[in-house]
Amino acid sequence: MIAFLGRALAGDRPLGRGWFALAAVALLVLKLGLRVVLLPQALTFLQLFDPEVVKEIMRLWMPLLVQDASLLVWLALDLVTSWLIVMFGLRRAADAGRGQFAAVLAMIPLLLVPAAAYLCLLPSRPVGTSPVGVPVQGDTPSWPDAVLAVLVGALLTVAMVAVGGLLLGTYQYGLFVLTPFLIGVVAGYLVNRHGDRGLATTTKAVGLSTLAGSVALVSFAIEGLICIAVIAPLGFAVAWLGALAGRAAARTASWGRMNVGGAVAALLMVLALESLAQREAAFELRSTIDIDAPPAAVWRALVRMQPIAEAPALPFRLGVAYPMSASLSGEGVGAIRRGEFSTGTAIEQIVAWQPEVELAYRVLNEPPTMRELSFHEVVHAPHVHGYFTTGDSRFSLERLPGARTRLSVTTQHALRLEPSAYWLPVARWAVRENHGRVLRHIRSDAQSQILAPL
Question: CATH 3.30.530.20: does it fit domain 281-451?
Fold first, then answer.
């Protein structure tokens, strides 16, 4: 793999059809193998190497990695394999004297195989000819190109989020992966178009470009600070990979405004297609707690949930929705439960009512998933409504020996954000935190009833 990365980074060296075909097929097989093998087995495999002490530290400080390691590892490797095909494709384009646009399009999942096949079919340049390249070190000052890269990056960020999020209402692969990749490609190309400025300068340029885009989104009240912070690790990583591809393109040939415009047009088409068929990831979570109180006391604490005194974790204090209290109008199936959250009120209808055994409800209307942290009073971010939803929720009480109770809560959710391998760990962590908040409150309330004097 290290040798593969080294050869891919040498993007100014031509690559013949045979070697490119071999590399592309190997990487495609690797992508398929990662999807089939890694996703169900990676977490178990990683746990084999974790001593109990390390597990406990990771549980406390790195819950996302522990809970959804397989998804995050798969996403990282899947993106890297796609990027490697792009980088080898740029070398194939250098050998053919054309095809750079197709190489960059290989980052789009639906176009990966067609783009790779097209590059395999391109004949090599006649012997004695060479592509239009740039000198290893240019004499033109780098700062004007860096400034242009930052400005173009900010413009592309605002434009794509406005079109994809505000206009089309799609927050999927095109917006969260392909958009930062394109921004990185453009930044990497612009800063190196008059001479190779090196890896450090390219990294600084793409970092400033993504930062400028983030500042622009917050300034125009399109996004809030929390959302920017959550997507930043994925966005910058993909933008950096794009910058390496842009640098390779600048070192082999003049990419040109037509290819930039074509890449933007292709991205807009992806956003439009995703808006017509948005993917949804459904998941269910169950949390349990043992309570030193009989089911009758636990039931009373459950059906008349008083305001929760426990302070929420920092992400929730900054805007992510968390439960505060709940109240019931009536009893039995059909009764209405009002769940008070930090962002508003959830209206829920009771669908199962067995005192001291089970309470279940269906969410009829729910508040925003978060309140954007921003300098603006109103932030125009559609994803806080309807992109993460809760369906049926169920509390189950199990009588334990010694007048104790095991209380379980199971909730069903749907997520309309992609890549789901990135967003599912975030969503699951938030749900688990809220589960724990509610369960600990009920335990405290129920046990206080037992300790209270008669």
Answer: yes
Using H for helix, E for strand and C for coil, what is the string for the chain? CHHHHHHHHCCCCCCCHHHHHHHHHHHHHHHHHHHHHHHHHHHHHHHCCCCHHHHHHHHHHCHHHHHCHHHHHHHHHHHHHHHHHHHHHHHHHHHHCCCHHHHHHCCCHHHHHHHHHHHHHCCCCCCCCCCCCCCCCCCCCCHHHHHHHHHHHHHHHHHHHHHHHHHCCCCCHHHHHHHHHHHHHHHHHHHHCCCCCHHHHHHHHHHHHHHHHHHHHHHCCCCCHHHHHHHHHHHHHHHHHHHHHHHHHHHHCCCHHHHHHHHHHHHHHHHHHHHHCCCCEEEEEEEEEEECCCHHHHHHHHHCCCCCCCCCCHHHHCCECCEEEEEEECCCCCCEEEEEECCEEEEEEEEEEECCCEEEEEEEECCCCECCCCCCCCCCCHHHCCCEEEEEEEEEEEEECCCEEEEEEEEEEEECCCCHHHHHHHHHHHHHHHHHHHHHHHHHHHHHHHHCCC
326-358 pLDDT per residue, tens: 999 989 999 999 999 999 999 999 999 999 999
Q: Where in the chain is the domain with CATH 3.30.530.20?
A: 281-451
Condensed to tens digits (0 to 9), the pLDDT of residues 232-255 reads 999 999 999 999 999 888 877 656
